[in-house]
Amino acid sequence: MAQKIHTDVSGTVWKVLVKPGDTVKAGDVLFILEVMKTEVPFEAEADGEVIAVHITEDSGMIEEETLAIEIS
Fold first, then answer.
1. Nearest partner of 19 among 64, 65, 57, 63, judged by Cα
2. How far apart are CA 26 and CA 19, in angstroms?
3. Cα–Cα distance between 43 and 71 in angstroms, integer?
4. For 35-64, how does the pLDDT look when each residue is reduced to its tens digit (9 = 90+)?
5. What dotted CATH number matches 3-71?
6. Residue 72, exposed/middle/buried by CB under 10 A (0-12, 13-18, 19+)?
7. Which of 26, 28, 35, 54 lies in the 20 to 30 Å Cα band around 2?
8. What angle do CA 33, 29, 4 make, to 5 degrees?
9. Which pTM was predicted?
């Protein structure tokens, strides 16, 4: 079953650190949002392979609960 990483806050995509096909371990930082001038990292919850990245560094402002990354 795919692990779906959603944002839990609104913010600007500062950095996307993975792409489809990348292997990640639990705790790896997948992307970073800038929220009120603070960097907020989002981590993989389990080991797996990135199957989709739905955000980019030029996405601008994204809302809370945006689907960002899927991992199998």
1. 57
2. 16
3. 11
4. 999 999 999 999 999 999 999 999 889 999
5. 2.40.50.100
6. exposed
7. 35
8. 80
9. 0.93
